[in-house]
Amino acid sequence: MSHSPILTSDQLAHAGQVVYAHLPASPQYAWPLLKKRVGATVWVKHENHLPVGAFKIRGGLVYANRLLQAGTKPAGLLCATRGNHGQSVALAASLCNLPVTIVVPHGNSAEKNAAMQALGAELVEHGDDFQQAKEYATALQHQQSLHFVPSFHPDLIAGVATAWLEFFKTVQPDVLFVPIGQGSGFCAAAAVRNLLNLKTRLIGVVSAHASAYQQSFIEKRAVVVPATTQLADGLACSTPDPQALELIWREADDIVAVTDQEVADAMRILFTDTHNVAEGAGAAALAAAIQQKDRWQNKTVGVSLSGGNVDAALFTQVLSRAF
């Protein structure tokens, strides 16, 4: 049974033109200490090295560009986020001379909040989790005639796919572990894997304390699960996106779940073995590779270090093993 592509080569080429007008490519390295630890060659895609410290900025740039290309210049942009999507939208809005309002849940990362405000965003706190913040943002959209930028959209996939083109040009691993928040990162990896006709297996990674996508994958239906992760806020999704689910059902070889403790271990390992700072969601892929290492001995494994935006106080707890 044939499927329409997630992304065409022309769409990917256009996304590259937009992204590289503002960003460098991020590196990917095979770290010897990780190889020793995992028993496999481990390539890390370092999206934590991008200007806002996370992969999301690629999608935000492409989304804003397409919006303006369509002749649409709204009164402002609006989104709901736990942080990295918000930084992406805020930077893209500033480059387009658009005001931006960002809704975050109460108790959100103070340092991510500060980073979004430094990019010119008006920050609104509402609700106890991402889903409540998103619902409030949707209401604000109509009240203030703002353009709502979703967390999952084809233009976001196109932008993030530029990262996976960089990666797959360098290495074609046996397996690639990709964290799933709302799904743009995973779907982008699948899109490029398919365009290049590679046999790399794709394994999605969720938090064991926010397992909606894993449960939905297993049950082949949308399942809502409360998100209670204390460490991987970028994975704190309780309600899967329907479009993302369709693609994940089609493209994922598996979805595995990692606990906050496994994520904390992976954050420490990344710092010890590579001297890179990872936020919880950013370390989730390596946590999964370590959890699943018996399956991939002597193979080539890829992991996404999708973001490094962790609050200093929390990272101190992780490094001191207080978490």
UniProtKB/TrEMBL annotation:
InterPro entries recorded: Ser/Thr_Dehydratase (IPR050147), Ser/Thr_deHydtase_PyrdxlP-BS (IPR000634), TrpB-like_PALP (IPR001926), TrpB-like_PALP_sf (IPR036052)
Domain Tryptophan synthase beta chain-like PALP stretches: 30-307
EC number: 4.3.1.19
Key word Transferase present: no
Organism, scientific name: Saezia sanguinis
Pfam families: PALP
Protein name per the record: L-threonine ammonia-lyase
Domain of life according to the entry: Bacteria
